C-alpha cells in the first residue's frame, strides 16, 4: 500500500532527524558493494508493473520548486557521515523543475570554492511497501560526483539505521559512469557489509548517455533490481545470513547528488561542474 501522509513525528523526533542526519543518514550510502553476496537475478518481470498507484511526473513551470506535497529538502554541510563536501540546500539553484517535465538536481561549485547540491526525500509524505518503485533518470558524471536513488524505512530515525533498513535502488560513482549499484543495508549487514551487486551498461557505454529506468520489484521476502527492465540481482531472506530481514514495512524515497566522500573520492582537475541529475518521473506500481 502507499500512504500519502501528514507529518506525524513529534518535535523531539524532528530534532532527532536533524541530529541523526550528520551521523546516520550519510553512513547509509557509504562504500558498501559486497560482490561475494550477490545473488543471480531470477525474477520474472514480464507482468510488471501493475497498477500505477502514485507518481510525480515533475510537470510545472521552469524554475519552479518540486511539489512540496511529495518532497522535503534535507539541508546541511556537515559531511553526512562520509566526509562529503557539499552543502545541501533548498535553493532553486540546486533543485528545480525544468519546464519540460523533469526535476533537475544540480551540483555546483560556488565562487568561494564550496560545493552545493540537493537531497530530497518523501519522508512523512509518500511511504510505500512492495510493488515496483522506479525512476527514469539521466545521471551526472565526473570524479567525486555521487548520485543516488534510494529508500529508508519509514520509522527512521526512531528506529536507528541500519535497523530501519535501507534499499539503494541506484548508486553511481561518477568516475565509473558505465556501472551502477543496487544494495540493501540492515542489522548485521551494513556499511561495507551491505549486500548487493553492480550492473554494467549493456553496450559498454556510460549511463550518462541518456535516461534509464532504475527500479526494484519488491515482494514480501524478496527484492529484485533492474535497469531498463533488465533484472540484474535478487536478494531474499535467505541471503541475509540469519540476520533480520527488515524490508517488510513501508519505506520513503530519496534523491540526491553528493560531492566527494569516502567511496567516490573527491573532485580533481578533471571534474567539470555543474553536474545535473535529471529525473523524468518517479512512480510506484502495485504488483
Entry keywords:
287 residues, mainly beta, ten-stranded mixed β-sheet, nine-stranded antiparallel β-sheet
Describe the structure.
The protein has one helix spanning 11-27, and strands at 2-4, 52-56, 72-74, 86-88, 95-97, 103-109, 115-117, 119-121, 126-128, 131-138, 145-153, 166-171, 179-185, 195-200, 212-219, 222-227, 230-236, 251-259, 275-285. Helices cover 6% and strands 38% of the residues. The strands form two sheets. Strands 2, 4, 5, 6, 7, 10, 15, 16, 17 and 19 form a ten-stranded mixed sheet that branches. Strands 1, 3, 8, 9, 11, 12, 13, 14 and 18 form a nine-stranded antiparallel sheet that branches. The longest helix has 17 residues, at 11-27. The model is unreliable at 4-40 (pLDDT under 50). The protein has 287 residues and is mainly beta.
